[in-house]
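User: Predict Nitrogen regulation protein B's structure from this.
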Amino acid sequence: MAAVVGRVAGLAAAFAAGAVVAHLASIPRLHRLTDDLQHSRQRILAAREEERRRLRHDLHDGLGPTLASLAMSLDAVRLTLPGEPERVAPLLSELRDRLATTVGQIRDLAHGLRPPALDDLGLAGAIEAMAADCCERVDVRVGGLGEDAGALPAAVEVAAYRIAREALANVRAHSRSGTVLVLLNRDAALHLMIADSGVGFSEQPARGSADDRRRSRRRGGLASMREWAAEVGGTCLITSRPGAGTIVSARLPLTVPDYHRASPE
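Assistant:
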């Protein structure tokens, strides 16, 4: 009996020691994952603040002075009308052209905040329109996005649209694929998958290759897709092999994290 107890105690000690070793071995990996998440979050916050700064600059230094100048031109027309009415028509024509330019600037600002196709076509329709001329054969399948499913969070819609736009742009520019499959489905989360049968790629191109610069731009696009997904608390996985096509798969939760309440330490 004592021998059995001793053997069991020895096995338990060995198991405990192995568990401790495994835990210690996992600590560096956990630290790396934590650091990667922190850096990704910092990049997202930095990108958001940069976008806000750009928008403030466009409004304050671009659109604001333009509107003030238009107001001054209207005053000039008002003062000119009683004494020199013949000069009013050219002034009004010039003013109309400047107003048209200003409307275009406002439209560009609005488009930068939210793609108009989302409001005009909905997410499924916008993605279908983008994919229509992508390659010879396009198969788009949509599920769970009917009128009775409820509206998607605006940030999730924009993230899915941007990921799809970047993935389909890569198919057009790089894949040389004759077939692309787009799956868009909603259940507890929004799922987006874009798969092509093209040439694929390697994330580690040979140095000195003539395609290095093009591949570097593509890797930047892949990083952007991952960050758009991370910004709404989701994930985006890109898998590809030379000659085996590429799959972009995103999962976007339907509740968006509040980064303002939980700022990085």
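Confidence is low (pLDDT under 50) at residues 261-265.
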